[in-house]
Automatic annotation (TrEMBL):
One of its GO terms (molecular function) is zinc ion binding. Keywords: Metal-binding, Repeat, Transferase, Ubl conjugation pathway, Zinc, Zinc-finger. It comes from the Eukaryota. This is RBR-type E3 ubiquitin transferase. Residues 1-40 are annotated as: Disordered. The gene is 109533853. Residues 1-26 have a biased composition (Acidic residues). InterPro entries: Ariadne, ARIH1-like_UBL, E3_UB_ligase_RBR, IBR_dom, TRIAD_supradom, Znf_RING, Znf_RING/FYVE/PHD. It is an enzyme of class 2 (transferase). Belongs to the RBR family. Ariadne subfamily. Residues 130-341, 134-182 form the RING-type domain. Its EC number is 2.3.2.31.
Amino acid sequence: MDSEEETYDDVDSGNESSGDDVDFPMEVEVTGHREKQTDSDDYPFEVLSTEEIVQHMVDSIKDVNSVVEIPATTTRILLNHFRWDKEKLMERFYDGDQDQLFSEARVINPFKKLNITTTKSKPTKKIANGTEECEICFMVLPASHMTGLECGHRFCVHCWCEYLTTKIMEEGVGQTIACAAHGCDILVDDASVMRLVRDSKVRLKYQHLITNSFVECNRLLRWCPSPDCSNAIKVQYVEPHRVTCKCNHTFCFSCGENWHDPVKCHLLRKWIKKCDDDSETSNWIAANTKECPRCNVTIEKDGGCNHMVCKNQNCKADFCWVCLGPWEPHGSSWYNCNRYDEDEAKAARDAQERSRSALQRYLFYCNRYMNHMASLKFENKLYASVKEKMEEMQQHNMSWIEVQFLKRAVDILCQCRQTLMYTYVFAYYLQKNNQSVIFEDNQKDLESATETLSEYLERDITSENLADIKQKVQDKYRYCDSRRKVLLEHVHEGYEKEWWDYNE
């Protein structure tokens, strides 16, 4: 984006001082061939570099400008307003109220001359002898030192520069920088920003903000979530499918999380929130503790006796664990609360039992989810050790091609770990039925085979056991791969035939 830059052709900035003829440089020459890719499930997508993203944005603007002759910056703001849906913009442009359209997008209607009296705040004061007063710094300056937008609000060049720099560098605003006048929400166009800001770092940050806004607002684009990767994925339609960036990171285009088959995006979002939420700690406290009725200190019941004595040295309250009332009226009834209504007591005990049961169920699935996640991280490190084993096997008269089965085995192992990890999220929300039993059997079978394969790959390889290990590893990873596919096919068949009901 920094090299071989060109500018929009014939762009009217919509600015009073547009005679400077400075536009936002966003067109770049893309030297590489953009290659369409498809993943294994025939979901077409493209991986775009930063330069290709900018070019795609410019092409989208030109597509609209080939039909509607309006300034390129105005077109970009309108497209951004409609989340870069060109069809929706064109439909609204021709079938709706154009004045309202431009007003909602916060730009001046380029087909009409602005009536200054319609703006929300007054235009700049003009002083005698060709001078004007800047309403930010209140200095009286020659008119040549003042500039502004078509809304009629003019300020000195220095104040404009400071205002734009603050918005860009400190507030991180690019797409929605409004006029500096109080109460005016007209957006500052690209040409004005690039004309008024001379600092190259600020200009570059502005370009990055505009590009980022383009990707985030465009439903057919998504940044690769891998750290330090600046690529974006472009698709033809939005569905929860697996996509793989050129950096080899694989993720779900719909939600941006790591590829999570067989669980659906909305359930995964709920699960991640549940795991991150401190509410599970609160659930444990609710299931195992109560508060002292006098000082509100949290107390855990660690015995069978209902007579509780607060350990707070400043409290020492005696109370009943069941009803939380003072212990003295209970007399010698040390193990039962005779004052407590039996139905209410049973309801309270049932509620506490349900809380404990819900917590134990969550921990069952969470522990297995986390264990497979941890194993997956170790398995990714296994590639280094497998590489050494492959080199060692080549020393035992095996060719490079013959030892590739080890790398293939680790690939399959990682895929199985990732699938198993997300099966526990799916299972947590799944209601019991006949099909869920089949799913759990498939899950158990895959898990057992995956653990066996992991053990094989961690064994030491010697010349004596080389042939035996190779055969076992090949047989097991093929079995794991087939069982993984069977599990996923069964879950997806359930989606199609509506077998699954959820505890949400």
